[in-house]
Every structure is written in C-alpha cells, then in structure tokens.
Amino acid sequence: MKISVLVATLSAIVNAQNDCNAYNELESATSCGSSGYAMNYGLPNCENFSKREDIFDARGKRFISCTRGCLARFVREELIGGNVKNCATIKSMAFASHVPCYKKCEFCQALFSNKIAFARVFRFSDFFNANALRQVADISWNCIWSG
C-alpha cells in the first residue's frame, strides 16, 4: 500500500514538472522574454499552484491537475505545434484557453470548497492584468449561471 502511494505521489510530481515545463518550451520556441505570457504568467502560476497543491482538498487537487494538463496541452499543441511566434498573439490565444480548461476541469465545483486555498495561491498582481480580469469575469459568470 505504501509503495503504491509513493509511486502515485512521484508520478504526480513528475507530471506537474512536465506540465509546467511547457512554458519553458514555449519561451525557447518564441523568445517573448520576461513580459511574455510564458514567463510572466503561465510558468509562475503553474509553479505556484503545483507548490501549494497540498492546501487544496481532493476536488481542488483534481482541478489543479486537470487544468495544468489542459493548459500544457494547449501550449504544446496549439502554440508550439502551431508555430505561433507573435508574442501578442500567444498571450491572446493562451488566455483564451483558460476558461475552456477551467470549465472542463470543474473550477466552479472546486472553488466552492477551496475559496481560501485559491485566495492564497492566486497572485495579487494578476488582478491588475486585463486578460486575467477578463478570464475571472468569464469564469465567474459561468459559475453563477451554471450552478
């Protein structure tokens, strides 16, 4: 039993590192720099959620794992795979991918039992970013009207 828990834990850590590494891969492919989506938003948030995952309940952890994978797939398949090089286009496309991933991964359900955990993990500075604010408004609207 203990070995299977250890294997599952190590697997989750490796998956989180691989998913967050998508942002380093994007930066290597595009060189948008410290103000680009990958280095300024994607990677810091991915790493922050991965480091603080332990403060979430089971539903919150499922949301984090699902969203991390969903966003990493988008970065690898659509941005890197699509050979998108324009930094403004990358930022726009990447932010547009957040709400569909959040919906798919049941953010609204995770939020209700993890409000304090989310408040501790979100970076305050992100709430001064127009793209992030739009994303918060979109997903909030979805939470209000879908349940």
From TrEMBL:
Q: Note whether Nucleotide-binding occurs among the keywords.
A: no
The record's annotation in InterPro entries points to: Stanniocalcin (IPR004978)
Q: Provide the Gene Ontology terms for cellular component.
A: extracellular space
Subunit:
Homodimer; disulfide-linked.
The residues forming the signal peptide are: 1-16
The family classification in the record reads: Belongs to the stanniocalcin family.
One Gene Ontology term of the molecular function aspect: hormone activity
The source's domain of life comes to Eukaryota
Keywords attached to this entry: Disulfide bond, Hormone, Signal
Listed name of the protein: Secreted protein
| UniProt-listed GO biological process terms | intracellular calcium ion homeostasis
